[in-house]
Amino acid sequence: MRSASMYSRFAKAASHFCGRPRVFTLAVAVIAAWIVTGPMFGFSDTWQLVINTGTTIITFLMVFLIQNTQNRDTEAIQIKLDELIRATKGAHNALLDLEELEEESLDAFRAKYEALASAARAQLVGGGPDTGTPEP
């Protein structure tokens, strides 16, 4: 568990650092330097291999950092949404933790809410309100 915590702290710090404008500027400067050195190296295969290898390695590592950040953010949002559902009077607690359900169960919930939305739109077109709780 300690290594996961260390990785999480590292990933958070690295993604925060890499998202700064200065880091983007540094990346552009590296590419510009690579382009400028092209004539010096005769645009050789080795010259091309340097940038290809470097960008591939960086991209490979960044995928894991970005995924970690997205997973953490998504989990935090889901917990906040679960709390809003839990704290809202009249809300359906069955909607808590939906992201853990199987696809068939999600489809059933989606169909129910699509039907409610369709009925509300029809009521709105007919001049009625589209607010309120449809269940008694």
Q: With helices defined by DSSP (H or I, 4 residues minimum), what is the helix count?
A: 4
Percent helix range: over 70%
| Count of individual beta strands | 0
The residue-averaged pLDDT reads 90
> Could you spell the SSE succession in H and E letters?
HHHH
Low-pLDDT stretches are none
Globular, elongated, flat, extended or rod-shaped: what is the shape? elongated
Distance between the first and last residues' Cα? 47 Å
Instruction: Quote the beta fraction.
Output: under 5%
Computed Rg: 25 Å
Structural class: mainly alpha
Into how many domains do the coordinates divide? 2
Describe this structure in words.
The mean pLDDT is 90. This protein has 136 residues and is mostly helical. The longest helix has 43 residues, at 45-87. The protein has two domains: 2-93; 101-136. It has helices at 2-18, 21-37, 45-87, 103-125. Helix 1 crosses helix 3. Helices cover 74% and strands 0% of the residues.
Please sum up the structure shown.
74% of the residues lie in helices and 0% in strands. It contains four helices and no strands.
Draw up the topology in text.
Blueprint lengths: L1 H17 L2 H17 L7 H43 L15 H23 L11
Helix pairs in contact: 1-3
Keywords:
136 residues, mainly alpha, 2 domains, 74% helix, 0% strand, elongated
